[in-house]
Write a structure and sequence with these properties.
Strand content: 15-25%
Distance between the termini: 30 Å
Mean pLDDT: 91
Strand order of the largest sheet: 2-3-6-1-7
Order of helices and strands: HHEHEHEHEEEHEHEHHEH
Helix content: 40-55%
Number of helices: 10
Shape: elongated
CATH superfamily of the largest domain: P-loop containing nucleotide triphosphate hydrolases
Largest sheet: 5 strands, parallel
CATH topology of the largest domain: Rossmann fold
Structural class: alpha/beta
Low-confidence stretches: 1-7
CATH class of the largest domain: Alpha Beta
Number of domains: 2
């Protein structure tokens, strides 16, 4: 495990909250999936933005496990001070759409997770992707408001095939995350434990046990890991062992 390559793996004196991980991870310390192709592409996009290669802020669609975390890693790599996250299912009415997109800055990153569930909001999102703006208007025409999106639109989902063809056709960059290997999933568990300042028994197969109980699926592994960290911190422990992992699984 190369801690120089993944600097966030180093256990620090400061103990972060488990759910703060996405606010600190970047494209240079996130664990890559598969052969790392998706990470390479995202780094190229980030470099292009920093270098002014793009004439306008690009749109990105990330599909696969950990897509939202990669979206946050992109935003953090760009040093954005205005990161707006929203599940697509909440962007199905005018008020929520205006609240999310209004007053967008050039360094704003809009991260929309589960974009395949956007439903009636798809037309508005399509206009933002294509034109960078949308005219919101009341039914009687008495009220209208133009909303402009200047920053990056980062769409996330589990499966590229679940996204509407009209959105797929208009997004600038489509990135599919490769499946994680068991070793990469174990590294991800180690990384998040180190981030929270939680040590573990190396000889008891803690990492293997957590991955096994999470069915080798990132979302389920994170659920198990979150409960493990909660138990360790609540009980004032300094080390996580297999017995705590088994108790965490029973509580889920």
């Amino acid at each position: 495990m190369n801690e120089e390559e993944y600097p966030v793996l180093k256990k620090t004196q400061q103990k972060h909250r488990f759910d703060e991980f996405d606010q600190h991870v970047s494209l240079w310390n996130v664990v890559p999936a598969g052969k790392g192709h998706s990470l390479v592409v995202l780094r190229k996009i980030a470099d292009g933005i920093h270098n002014g290669t793009f004439k306008k802020s690009p749109s990105v669609l990330i599909a696969g496990e950990g897509a939202r975390t990669l979206g946050m890693a992109l935003a953090n790599t760009l040093c954005s001070e205005d990161v707006r996250q929203c599940d697509a299912k909440y962007l199905n009415n005018t008020r929520s759409q205006i609240e999310h997109f209004a007053e967008s800055l050039f360094d704003t990153v809009h991260i929309i997770s589960n974009v395949n569930t956007i439903g009636m909001g798809e037309g508005v999102l399509w206009h933002f992707l294509r034109n960078g703006n949308y005219k919101f208007q009341s039914f009687d025409g008495a009220y209208c408001q133009y909303v402009y999106v200047h920053g990056i639109l980062c769409l996330c989902c589990n499966d590229m095939k679940s996204v509407s063809p009209s959105l797929l056709a208009i997004v600038d960059h489509k990135i599919t995350v490769e499946p994680y290997t068991h070793q990469q999933l174990e590294l991800m568990v180690h990384q998040r434990l180190a981030f929270c300042g939680v040590d573990y028994e190396d000889d008891e197969g803690v990492l293997v046990t957590i991955v096994k109980h999470g069915d080798a699926q990132m979302n389920q592994i994170i659920d198990v890991l979150r409960m493990c960290v909660l138990l360790v911190q609540a009980e004032g422990r300094s080390v996580l062992d297999v017995s705590v992992v088994e108790r965490a699984v029973r509580l889920l």
